Amino acid sequence: MSGEREAVQGYNAELLEALAELRARRDELSERIREEEAERGRLQSRIAALTERLARSSERTARHLSARRQLDASIAESEAAYGKILESSQTLLDALKGEIENASKASESASTSKQTRGQKHS
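The structure corresponding to this sequence follows.
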């Protein structure tokens, strides 16, 4: 019986040793889990902060795009109006040149006519 008792005590010691090893592994895993959960919490906080920054950036971009569209429209209207002004200026210039030409012809014909009359009286 003594042999059986010693065998049972040996098994018991091995069992206790195996249980202690399993507990040590469990404690090690528990520490890793705590570390991973802490890292996960930090990452989630960063994600929340980055998500908020992204939303603010998107809002600013949308406002800038709207302002740019308004400026593009203003530029297009101004360029169109300027083109009409240039066209009107060219039309006015052409009309004035025509008037100057007509005035010059009238002046030349009046002076030719005076010269012709002056030669008749002489």
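Residues 2-121 form the longest helix (120 residues).
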